[in-house]
Amino acid sequence: MALPSLAVSPASGQLTGDGLDGCYRDGLRVLSRCELLAAGAAPLVVQARMLGADRARFIGTIRRAGDHGPDPEIRMERLRSADGTERITFHSSSARPVRLPVEIRLGTDLAELGAVAVGLPGTELRPAVHGSGLRWSGHGAHAVVSATPTPQDSLASSGLLRWELDLPPGGRRTIELRTALEHDAEVPSAGAAGGRRGTEVRRISGPRSRPAPPRARGDRPPRPWALAKVECDDHRADALLAGCLDDLYGLLMRVPGSPADLHVAGGFPWRCGLAPAEALWTARMLLPLGTRLAAGTLRTLARTQQAAPGADFGRIPGPLRDAGPHAPPSCTGIEATLLFPTVLAEARRWGLPDQETERLLPAAERCLSWLRTATGPLGTERGGYVPDPAPDGPYRCETQAHAHRAALLGADLLDAFGSPDAAALREWAADLRSRFRADFWIEDRAGGRPAAQLAADGRPLPHLGSAAAHLLDTGLLGGATLAPGLLDAAQTGQLARLLGGPALDSGWGLRSLGAKESGYNPFGHRSGAVRVHETAVAAAGLTAAGHEKEAGALTRGILDAADSFGHRLPEMYAGEQRTADAAPVPHPAACRPSAVAAAGAVQLLTALAGVRPDVPATTVALRPPAGAPLGAIQLTGLSVAEQPFAVRISRLGMGMVEAAADGLQLGS
Fold it and tell me: At residue 45, what are phi and psi to the nearest 5 degrees?
């Protein structure tokens, strides 16, 4: 992936048009078929591997009539890039010259990615010979494949390009394919009368008609985070961090017309565009690597904020998402609205300049204004709780956690810039804490549990899942201190025991619904599957609350799962109980790569350093877990105050800062 471009293929490297196979650009499948034959047969692929989030390499051998013995004399290397460039190189080990016939069959349907992803591809289009390749037209778009060297034969009726390659002894020959996309866009015509529309051809941004060199990156933004590295007793952590950052770069997108504003897409294949809540979660979890992604994401979402007066004033729009068998769909826009001031406040602690913070402060104030409006007056029926998604509820426990954190961190932010509204927000948060501990806590003989939600009539619903981990995610205030949580110390300890118990901890991470709850389904994406993002939130919250044993178990479980997935974690996987001879099973509808899964793994690893910055106060504190769940660890390439920051944690959990910005003092 190198959004807005991506390529999907099986391990054979052959694009057959089945399933999601193809090269995509700007949401369209530019090439669905790219089948290679050499000496009349498909190469035998002996290795397929990713070289990065945007490149894959396939190594194969070719058998020819008359070959003697089992040793192949011709081998093939197929290097495919997400930008639509493919280089196919044939190497000869023969002692004699070899003439190798090569055929490549091409095709496309120019179908939309969303339609292909749900199994509704288009009809394959008929190509025409075009220059040194082929061209397809349909649905207002044109796909062009050009080849170097020019094929000796082109059969448009079957989409076939043919070469006769002469390989000298020990020599090699390369065929390069380049895929481009053009669009027909319907726009108002100056001469059209009565509202009729004319048609003009426009070019989609990025290289289209001219040859692009291998790995062309002209339209790719720079990485908005530091190139962090980890050295750890558990060497799998090194590969996981590198792989996650590579995947996140593949998901990185620019805002059209505002190239400095960057955000990450939600994931492939379902969310290749802006997903507000997931973009904010990703930016927040990557704050230890710098604040540029957070700033770009916040600027992007501030432009989408509701500006018209009314009940939705200040709210960030977002789609509904399924919430499992016990609740109606939740609203990602509400989650994003509550995350916005949290991300801005914490980004300032990590070093976002005051000038940028002030620029974004009005949007954060509008989010906080919506929060106060949505909850209603204190003391009224259900007043003080945030409904999600309807004005009359339900009232979800994780939504109240997001709202409480937004109020406290928002008040801290407003105080810093002299706003008089901070006191009212703290009063609202204190009232919420008091009421939540009574209304949302269900006592039982096992020690109690938090309710998943309150119904509109005030009934607490007791089913327990990983969403309760958000109650431990309190956020960072000034002085490198954590904000108070919605639960008291005894309730926090009980929740930690529940999160560490076998009903929720599958051994690979937290189930989204406990195994003993009604409606549990290990493949249910909100009713039992493991969601990496929420497990990362739980591990970080448990560490901050001093429950390091449970946090360490979750961290090791995610690391073990990542190892089995080749360090590219899916968004979710089955919550079946871990056994000695089993491996985690991916959910069939999971995004992979997924922004929140990759960022969650980054958070798991950076949380092991326990860095708590307060750049406005020029201090930084280290609170690493005493248990050192992965052994000794060194993190370099972090960023505090927009300067390099490095830290080393011993096997005993002792931390030492090895590099920091000038003037930054180590706090207690």
Answer: -80, 125
Strands (E), 482-578: 530-531, 572-573
Per the DSSP assignment, residues forming a β-bridge with 511 are 530
The strand order across the sheet containing 643-649 reads 229-232, 633-640, 643-649, 655-659
Structure tokens at 408: 């406290």
- pTM given for the model: 0.89
Domain definitions of the chain by residue range: 5-202, 229-666
Predicted confidence (pLDDT) per residue in 351-382, tens digit: 999 999 999 999 999 999 999 999 865 545 55
Per the document, the length of the chain is: 668
DSSP letter string, 126-190:
PPEEETTEEEEEETTEEEEEEEESPPSEEEGGGTEEEEEEEEPTT-EEEEEEEEEEEEEEEEE-T
Residue 393, pLDDT score = 83
- Angle 570-572-578 from CA coordinates, rounded to 5°: 105
Instruction: Answer for the pair 393, 454: CB distance below 8 angstroms, yes or no.
Output: yes
Name every residue whose Cβ is closer than 8 Å to that of residue 275 and which is 6 or more positions away in sequence: 265, 266, 318, 332, 595
Name the CATH topology of 229-666.
Answer: Glycosyltransferase (1.50.10)
Q: Which residue has the tokens 């930008």?
A: 83
